[in-house]
Each structure stands twice: as structure tokens, then as C-alpha cells.
Amino acid sequence: MDYISRHIGPTRDETQEMLEAIGYASLDALIDAAIPQGLRMDGVLKLPKPLTEYEAQARLQELAKKNTVLKAFYGQGFFSTLTPPVIRRGVVEDAGWYTAYTPYQPEISQGRLEALLNFQTVVQDLTGLDIANASLLDEASAAAEAVGLMSRAVKKGRRVLLDSRLHPQVINVAAERGRVFDLEVEVTDLSQPVVAEDLVGAIVAYPGTEGDIVDPSPVIDAVHERGGLVCVDADILALTLLEAPGEFGADIAIGTTQRLGVPLFYGGPHAAFMAVTDKLRRQMPGRLVGVSKDAEGYPAYRLALQTREQHIRREKATSNICTAQALLAVTASMYAVYHGPAGLTEIAEAIHGYATRFATSIEKAGMRVRHAQFFDTVVVEDAGQEAVDKLAKAGYLVRKLDDEAVAVAFGEDCDDDDLRALLEGFGAGEISEGERRIPAELQRKTEFMTHEVFNSISSETQMMRYIRKLGDKDLALDRTMIPLGSCTMKLNPTAGVETITWPEFANVHPFTPDEYTAGWRELIEELAGWLTEITGYDAVSMQPNSGATGEYAGLMAIRQYHLSRGDDQRDICIIPASAHGTNAASASLANLRVVVVATAEDGSIDMADLDEKIAKHADNIAAIMITYPSTHGVYEDTVRDVADKIHAVGGQVYIDGANMNALTGVARPGDFGGDVSHLNLHKTFTIPHGGGGPGVGPIGVGEHLIPFLPSDANTDYVAEGSDAAHGVPVAGTYYGSAGVTQIPWAYIAMSGAEGLKAATSNAVLAANYVAHELNDAFPVLYTGENGLVAHECILDLNDITARTGVTAADVAKRLVDYGFHAPTLAFPVAGTLMVEPTESEDKAELDRFIEAMCSIREEIRQIENGEIEYEKSVIHNAPYTAHSVTRTEWPYDFSREQAAYPVDTLVHQKYFPPVRRIDEAYGDRNLQCACPPPEAFDIAVDELEPVEEIDVTTTEENRK
Ligand SMILES: Cc1ncc(COP(=O)(O)O)c(C=O)c1O
């Protein structure tokens, strides 16, 4: 069978039945009726003919073989590490983990929330700071986030100091972010005394990019004296041996957790971290897992402080971080759980041991080592290309620093043969034992990872079961449809996913010279070419590592374009009220002022309001950011008009391409007015969502914007004050989350032009089928031409809420008892549920969802009919744990059976959530963001708090 027939859920007969139900003869007829004619693309996409799964894997194997894996002793932020097989197979390669969604619905996400809380605890402990997030996109953008945080927190200063000892890519990404905020960025050696004034803060390296370890205390004190903040960019593994930045008074710590068991992946995806002092916690970007309690008083995890998120704060958001490499954070956290504090220290000691033996052997051979004190990286003086080439021939990658020195950075997989080979590369013979090279005064004295979870697992059996125990608590795509609007939770083709851990892909260091990475580059360029064709643009950059980073990169391209033309005054970004929150947050990160344009009655852009805003701001308009089809799930026919109007006054048109599942193969944003779009490859193009990342958010641009595509942070340093038009790097490596690009490559290669079009058509069919079947129970809020929706539909509960008290959140929680992940809650319209079924769900699964929703509607009717009060209803008290429906106490008027088995289909397919409804407000009032003590879970049954009313007003983490 061809791949696309496996990808699309319904069989031909089922497709026909669904078409009949909504009154269309064929998929083509449906698409003709749904999509405004003027928007359709001419002809079909020019893509190669589709491959079977086996052919696609054979081709990927060919590409993989074109890479020469040099064993990485390069460092610069990326180190060889060993992913324990139990974690690789149990997490990275396990659909239960990789197909989960961001844990906005905490009751069905306790497993991954626990894993992320473990991540936060590791980071918090090792950095010695009060609170850590989970997680950020990469080390370089984490530094950029730190610059943003410092400038928000310290209003007075205008200058930021970046340590010249930071990795070059970190300096370049952070410096550009600072410049966008109009900060004065000074790159200076922070191992020397600080003289600058007017500071917002400084980022100091610990250790430096050359491996040198310098006490960060003097710079921390000096910057504090001048009123600034200090961020320490730390090596997470080195912190097992080095004293924690928090102990020296650092305000912020950042870094990457790649070397905690996450493969090199040719640069990403890897989870970065940020930890801050308590006083900065509300300013911290990214997600934060916190501990709250459920309706019965049991501890339960949830995303905390969500009101600071972009969804609600929009242009006032602390950052635009949404998708954030969660699967990789989980992987790193599991690595920490498996090894524990003693194991991590042992690994760090072994690495340090190799580095010291190497350094001493080099010295004994009569050569010089640049830095006397280091953790894992040794710089050999008077060495150059010759040594680099010789070692490459022997299969090793080392880093040529300048014409006079070569750096060798040790990782977890080093052995004595490697050490011998490396020494030989420099002409040194014997291995000599080395002295410890960690400065005595910086030697770690504080304890870390003392919590039981890091000290109770020693065997593989225990680890396997811990991973399984957490995974079993969660609902992911491997168990049920996840009908989240605007999220496109569709099938992730195993034929593509499987290849990401192939060593010829996974073990390639991002700074490996091009001559060894032909396979990687061919694959990525081929994919970029296909995406260019699919979007109708002229070029695509693969660098952004999330949709929101794509937004930022696209807006920066627009900003730089205007600047290059002397249009410095163009600093306004028009954004419709219905836009995804990241749009406004990204615009403000790009230092654009946001002007909101209203929504018309029918959900489209209010053209009169748009005209007014354009007339008022014409000369200052940099761009409009629109989502197509809009977040209202409708193909608006005004999009071309909107684009023309903005172009007429000299603005640029950004089309958010997160909803490409409604367009691929039938219409192209580059053809209907867009100058730039980002795509969420972790939606339409099948990269799994991973519980909140990996993300890949490439941008496509028209020809005039090509010079402003993201530059390479490692090689293209653009000095401050340079007048030359240039692109701005947004991630530390040129191809961002390169390591998962095989997945969209495989999806497109196996689908071909017709397959992609069929996927889109079936996605539109599924949404219209659900809308049609549910419209009587829950009215569909917006429809477009011919009463049709696009690939998702919004169900309006406002009237039901007004009449019965039942909220959209109640329905979302009740769906858990039916075994479903809730649809998107209250976005983009309050009091609604947005359903996106995708093409991958078969008719039986769609019908199961429809049955559940109709059954819930009947439960609501009992309240309408006065049979039961809202507060006492089965729906308001949902969801129900196995414990709650089996213990003696049962304080409800409805039966246990109605609570747990409301429809027959559940009898042989029941999911019980591990917790009852979570008290959202309690968690924010009592913020706790590290692992709670084990006793916290030890509530004896007779001490149970009575099942009480909890505040169920929708809070942000309910949303989607
Ligand atoms: C319409 C839209 N734009 C942008 C984004 C942001 O993408 P990401 O989460 O990858 O940053 C999303 C994510 O949900 C989205 O739905």
C-alpha cells in the first residue's frame, strides 16, 4: 500500500460516507466549495513522485552514508554524550512520549509534567538558583532571552556586556537581540575587571569557550555595584564539579542540557535552560511546571504562572516562547534520574580525567597548553590545520581556534584509544597521568539532586518501569485522537521518526566541516526546496527552531529590509485580534509596535477597522501579520485585499503558516500576497509534538527578503554599527533543529504532490464532518463560503454557559473521562472549544469523539431540565480517578458508572486520569517549582480532604 493511504485515516468508503453526510459528491467538490476560487493554486505542486516507506528509508540511508561521522572532540557548546538505550528506546523512540502535546491539560499530563519538574529540579540544584524553567530552545537563544530579561528588569541601564569568552554563536545571537532592543552591546573579556557603566547586565561564561575556568565572583560583584544583573552561561555537567553560580550571587544562569544524554543531532533539537533568583521569577521566559493540588487535595503538577504567557499577555508577554524542546528536556531529565548525582559526578570526573591526562601528556611532549585550569576543554598552542586534518583522517573532529591553537573538548564517550589517537594527532606519544585542573576555590561544595527520585533508581529495570509509569499517566496520540485546534496533531510517520537516531545523522557535530556532512546538507536543502515550492516563496531558511522563532526571524527580515531602504520609521505591526499570542509577542521582540485590528461579526478581519488603521499609520506600517486560514477556522476571501492594501502603503505581509494543513497542495501563501511565512513543521509536516517540542519553524520569503534571512551565528559575525543589510541569526546553528528534519522530508517524499493535496482535502473533510455532526449539540461559531469551515471548527458554548453554568472548561475536563484529550479551550474566542481532527483520524475515531460530545451534551441537558444542579453534576466534578470511583465514599447523586463509563465503548478501552481536577489558582498562590518531598503524596485515605467545590473559571493553562 502507498504511504498516503496509511497516513489518511478514513478508507475510501468511509471518505464517501463522510462526504455524503455533509452533502458533497467528492473531495474536489468539497475543496472547490470551501476555498475561495481566487486563492487556489494553478496546477499541482512540482514534487518528485512519491516513495514508499521502504524507498524513503533507503534514500535516507543513502543520505546518511554521505555523512562522515567524525568523533566529536570539538566542544563549543556541543559534546559527545551517551544516551542510555533504556531512555533512547523508552522516551525518544516511544510514541507515548513523542506524540504527546504540551501539558496544558494537566490532568492527562502528569507523567510528562513530573519529568519536566525533574528537569527543573536538576537545573535549579546544579545552578544553585531559586527557580528554573522547562525549557528554552537552544543555548544561544537562551542568552538572547537573558538579555531581554535583564533589560526588562533593569529599566535604567542601556548597556549589556557579553563575555568574549562565550561561544561565538552565543555572542552573535544574544548581541543581535540586544541591538534590536536598542541596547548598547559590548563584547569584552569578563575575566578582566569591569569598567563599564550604565549597565543592564552582563553574561559571563563559566567555563569559557576555550575551556578556561575563571571565578565569576569579581564580575558579579562589579556589575551588581553598578546596578546591573549577571547571567552566568554555565556548562551543566561541569557544575557537578564547579561551585554553583547561585553561590556566587548570580541572578540568572543559562546553558544547554544537550550533554545530558541528548545526541548532537547536527546542532539541535536540544533543550536549553534558564534559572533565576526568586525576585526575577515572574520575568522568566518559557514554561514553568509547578505543584498544585487536585480536587481531593492530592499533589498534582501543572504549568504555573500561565498568565504571564504570550497567550494572554501578547505584546506585553515576557517572551514568545511556546514550543520549547520538551521531549529533549524529558530526555535530559531521565538521564539525570538514571545516573543520579553520584553518576553525573562520576561522568564529569571521567571527562575531566581524560582532559587532564591529555593536557599533561601534551606538556610532557614539550608543547604548551593555553589555560592551566579547565574542566573538559584543552587548548594546545602552536598547533593548527595540520593537526586538525591529521585527526580528521583518523576520524576525530577537533576545533581550530585560530592560526596558533587547537581546542580538544572531551565528552562522555571518550576511551583510552581515543586519547592515544588524539595525542598522536599532535605528535605526542605517551599517556601521562594528570593533576586535577579545577581551581580549588571553585570546587563544588554544595549538594545537589538530593531528592529521592534522583537517588532511588539504579537498575535498568527500575528505569524502564519509571519511564513506563510516567508515560502511562498521560494521554498522547498513541492512545487517542487529540483534536486540538491550531495544533494539527496528526500522524508522525514512523518511517521518518525512526531515522532520527541513526548514528550517521544523530552523532554529527554541528560545526563539522561541509566536506563531511554532504548527506545532511543535501537532505536539508532538498527539504527547503520542497517547502519553497509548497509555500510559493523564493527561498526558505531552516534555522528557526520553533514557530515563534520563525515569526521573530520573519519579522526581523522585514525590519532589516525596511532599514536597508532607509525606512527607519516603519515600526508598526498590525495584528488581528484573533491572532495566536506568539504573533504579538514576536512583534514586540522585534521592537515593533503592535496595532490590533478588530474582528468582524463573521470572524473575518474587520475591513473598515483595517482601513482606518492603515490610514492612521500608513507611513509607519512595517507589516501586517495574519494567519491563513485564520484562527477562526475559516477560509476568508479577503486575504488578497488585505495584502494589497498593506502593500499599497509600503508595508510587508507576514502570513502565519501554522495552519498549512488547510492549504498544502491547494493554495500557497506566496501566491496570494505573502512576503514571508513561517511553517510549523511540528504540525502540518509531521514532526511529533514531543509534549512541547522539538520545534522546526522555517520561514519562506519572497526574493526581496532573501538577503535578510537568518545568518550563520557561528561564522557570519556582523559587527555593531555595520551599515550593510544583513540577516539576523536566531539560533546557535545554521540549520536550527536539523536533527529531526528527516521526518518532514520523509512525509513529503512519501506523499508527493497528490498525496499532500489528499491530506489537506481529508483534513477539511474531517473538520466539516465533525462540525456538521456536532452543530446541533454545540453550534459552530464561524463558517465561510457555502457554510463550510476549513481544517478546524470552533464550537460555541457561551449560550450553554449562560443558561446552565457549564463552561467549556467543564466539557474539556469531562472529555478526559471519555478518554479524550480536550480540544483547544477558549482560544481564539472565550467560551469555545476549537476542534481540529486532522486527516489521520479514521471515521470510527471521529464518531467516537462525536458520540462523547453528544453524550456530554445530554449530561448538560440534565442540568437544563432541572434534574440536577450544576454544582452537583457529573460534568462539573469531572474528571474521575479510578480511586475516586472505587472507594467507599461516594458523595455524588449520579452513579459511579455514569462517572467512569458513560458510554459503552469505554468498557474495553478505559483511561483513568491519575488526578482529579486540578486547582489552578492554588498552584500560583503557593508557587513550588521543584520536586515535592515524597511525603507530600502520602495522604492516607481517612485524611482525605472532602471533595469540595473548586474554582473552575478558565485559566490560561486550560486553554490548549
Ligand atoms: C497560529 C500559530 N502561530 C504560531 C504558533 C507558535 O508556534 P510554536 O509553538 O512552534 O512556537 C502556533 C502554535 O501553537 C500557532 O498555532
From TrEMBL:
Superkingdom field: Bacteria
Matches recorded under CDD domains: GDC-P
Residues with the N6-(pyridoxal phosphate)lysine modification: 683
Known EC number: 1.4.4.2
Gene Ontology MF annotations: glycine binding; glycine dehydrogenase (decarboxylating) activity; pyridoxal phosphate binding
Keyword presence, Oxidoreductase: yes
Domain Glycine dehydrogenase C-terminal positions: 759-880
Catalytic activity line of the entry: N(6)-[(R)-lipoyl]-L-lysyl-[glycine-cleavage complex H protein] + glycine + H(+) = N(6)-[(R)-S(8)-aminomethyldihydrolipoyl]-L-lysyl-[glycine-cleavage complex H protein] + CO2
GO cellular component terms, A-Z: cytosol; glycine cleavage complex
Summary of the function given for this chain in its UniProt record: The glycine cleavage system catalyzes the degradation of glycine. The P protein binds the alpha-amino group of glycine through its pyridoxal phosphate cofactor; CO(2) is released and the remaining methylamine moiety is then transferred to the lipoamide cofactor of the H protein.
PANTHER family in UniProt: GLYCINE DEHYDROGENASE (DECARBOXYLATING), MITOCHONDRIAL (PTHR11773:SF1), GLYCINE DEHYDROGENASE, DECARBOXYLATING (PTHR11773)
The protein's assembly and partners: The glycine cleavage system is composed of four proteins: P, T, L and H.
Protein name per its UniProtKB record: glycine dehydrogenase (aminomethyl-transferring)
